[in-house]
Design a protein that fits this description.
Elements (H helix, E strand, L loop, with lengths): L14 E9 H14 L3 H13 L2 H7 L7 E3 L2 E3 L15 E9 H14 L3 H13 L2 H15 L2 H17 L7 H15 L3 H9 L1
Antiparallel strand pairs: 1-4, 2-3
Helix pairs in contact: 2-5, 2-6, 4-5, 6-8
């Protein structure tokens, strides 16, 4: 280090950008989710990618695209070197701009390496797969919604869930199931989830 030079501190929470290309129809879905959840579209994209990568069933669905091996959690998933590099085929597209902590960015980099594609394309693949799988999208979005609910709204949600279980003779109803219903209703009726909760409380 030269005289008078100070060592720069590296922030552990510094984020790195990813601009994922997605179809116009996919971008429209994210716009609806953003409105219904009253949450910036970039935060929704970031959350879906982080949570989507945690899904073993989603990674298994992506395996047929792997040209190289992927070290995933406690598994080693084999690729096939004879496969072509993965490319997103989009006639028209928009970009979803997001930022990730290093640990999450590295996961996308590993996935991109397995696909023999760019980090942007790897992120786009997860986004597209999740929103086309209701069994993934609704539970993931339900977790996001719970993160942004106030204590008052979460208490109201718990009360609704408890009431539904008291009058239901079917399977046990979870808060995730109730939030999934509210999300679907919000998209269908173009209403924010918080407004729907207020209407239920009247």
């Amino acid at each position: 280090m030269f005289k008078g030079e100070t060592m720069r501190k590296v922030r552990s929470d510094k984020k790195r950008a990813i601009a994922a290309p997605i179809s116009l129809s996919a971008y429209e879905i994210f716009s609806k989710l953003s409105y219904v959840c009253d949450t910036p579209i970039k935060l929704i994209g970031e959350f879906i990618i982080i949570e989507g990568y945690k899904s073993a069933s989603l990674i298994d669905e992506l395996q047929p695209y792997f040209k190289r091996d992927l070290q995933y959690e406690n598994r080693y998933i084999f690729g096939n070197s004879e496969r072509e590099s993965f490319k997103m085929k989009l006639n028209s597209k928009k970009r979803l701009y997001m930022r990730f902590l290093d640990r999450d960015h590295e996961k996308m980099a590993s996935l991109a390496y397995s696909l023999d594609s760019s980090i942007q394309v790897a992120a786009s693949l997860i986004l597209t797969k999740v929103i086309n799988r209701a069994d993934l999208m609704y539970p993931i979005m339900s977790r996001l919604i719970r993160n942004i609910l106030s204590e008052k709204d979460e208490a109201k949600l718990r009360a609704i869930t408890k009431h539904l279980n008291s009058v239901s003779s079917d399977d046990h109803i979870t808060m995730t199931a109730v939030l999934s219903y509210l999300l679907e209703k919000g998209i269908r009726e173009q209403k924010r989830i918080l407004n729907i909760l207020e209407e239920i409380d009247r």
